[in-house]
Every structure is written in structure tokens, then in C-alpha cells.
Design a protein that fits this description.
It comes from Nocardioides hwasunensis. The protein has 326 residues and is α/β, with parallel strands linked by helices. It has helices at residues 3-12, 17-22, 26-31, 59-67, 86-93, 105-110, 132-137, 160-174, 177-197, 223-231, 249-255, 270-279, 287-290, 308-325; strands spanning 36-40, 43-47, 54-57, 74-78, 97-99, 115-118, 141-144, 204-210, 216-218, 234-235, 244-246, 259-264, 294-298.
Amino acid sequence: MSVGAALVLSSCAGAPEAESATEPSSSESAESLFPVEVTSCGRTTTVEARPERAVTLNQGATEVALALGVEDQMAGTAYLDDAVPAKWEAAYDSVDVLAKEYPTREDLLAAQPDFVYASYGSAFESKVAGTQDELDDTGIASYLSPFGCDDQGERPEPSFDAVWDEVEAVATAFGVPDKADELRTSQQELLDGLAETDAGDGLSVLWFDSGDKTPFVGAGDGGPQLVLDAVGADNIFGDLEGNWADATWEKVVAAGPDVIVLADAAWSTADDKIAYLESDPVLKQLGAVQAKAYVTVPFSESTPGVRLADGAASVSDQLEKLAVGQ
């Protein structure tokens, strides 16, 4: 009997087995993409097969993986800065948390990872995951976010394109390249909408990350600047180099910002910063403080990563609400 006739008879009999036997499963299709190479920080790593027990270290890396929908390929996560957003909460809860901060090397290896992805170079120290060379020696592939390169000269200029390039590399490593394309398209559409809204037009903004005697602020070359550019607002410290920088309260007072963006993190909450601003005899005289013109952004939405576009959307929405309230 010919193969074609066999398939027809199987179909008539209502038996799906013959059809499924001729079509590869999604996992088999993904396996056909491997091996692949991913490069960051001057290092090229070969991922020999589709990761099945990946471990992500740092919130940025974890959320890229969750955005790509590969939680079923993960054996563990570690080290959050703040809460995972509701849209990924169920996926996050399905993955084991290896440690509140970094796991020990022993605890990480006990999870039997086949791929380790981290946001910061500190994750690849010997006492944590081990160096990438050490992981290679044990057959574990690894990838470090380009934004976390130890050599700052190897880091890309912060941009949404650079964020999407990282997402594309990680999607390649996990065998889900189409998911990266979908994410890039949806985020670009979101940013295009924010540009049309232009909620920050004409507003000067202080991005207050942390600090008291010396304010640590969003500077001109990182996530805060990208968010403020996306909403059309002016960063009063946009002339400072770097992602963040030390500033002075004297310059804040002289600039008189219309709005204060407050980064909300476990180590420096938005409420803590508001309490400081409103208790200081000089700072409480600022127009933005008196008007309570505050915008709150989770720290993880202020760093170059998969949530940066969400951070821009949140800032835009809050600026619109402030405008309505005035």
C-alpha cells in the first residue's frame, strides 16, 4: 500500500497517529535550528541543543525569558529588584526560585542547568555561577547581556534597537526566533503611539533614582533618557554622561523641574524618596513637590530591557493624569 493511500485510510478511520507521525512536533522543529551561536561582550557561545533547563540570573534576564514565553525551558531564576509584572506572574511562579539574590555555585549546579543567562557580569564570578569559561568546561552554555559587559567599551549605546538585539540573541539561543520578531513589532507600535501622544511635551523632569545628601539621577545615556525621549519630556540632567549620575540638590533647585520621576526599588522606594523631599526645608518648596507632581516607575522599567517600553507607557499615562489634575 502506498504512503498516500495509508494516510487516506487513516484519516477515514479517524486515527490521527499517521498524520502526527509525518509532521515534526514544535520541539522537533526547534531542535532543527541547532546548534546556534550567540555573541556578546566579545564572546561567542555555541548552544548545541534547545535549552531545557535554563537558569536566569537578575530580573532583566528573567523577564526577557518570560516575555519570550520559554518558562517551560527553565530550571530556575534568581535575584529580583522588584515585582514581576502581573502579565508574567503566573509564568514566573511556574519556575523554581534558586535564591533571593545570587545562588551559590553549588546551588546553581544542583539545578543541572544547560544554559545560564544573566544581566550583569557579577553573575559570572567564581563564587556565583562561575566564569563563562568554567561553565563551558562543564558543557553549560551561557550568555551575558551586552549592557552588562565588564568592559564598558563593549557595551552598546543604550537604545530600543540595542534592547531588541539582545532579545533576538536570547530568542535564538532558546530556539524561538519568531517570538523576538513579535515582541519587537509590538513594542515599536507602542512607542509610535507614545510619540503621537507626546505627553511630556514642554515638561522638565528630574529622574530621582536614590540618595539623600547627593541625589543619584537619571542621566543622558541610559534607560531614563530613553523613556523621557519616548514621551517627549526634557531631562534636567540630560547633559550628564552615563545611565545614572550623581548630581546636586542645588542644581535641582535651580532647574525647578515640573515633574519628578521616582524609581521604585527594594533598596530605595518611591515612598522613601517622597518622604525625604517633603521633609527637607528647601526641597519641599519645589513646585513639583508642592504640587505632588510625582511619577512612579519600578526600577526594572528604568533599565535597558524588555520592560523599558512598558516604563515609557506608564510614564506617559501618569503625565497625562497629572495634566488632567492641574
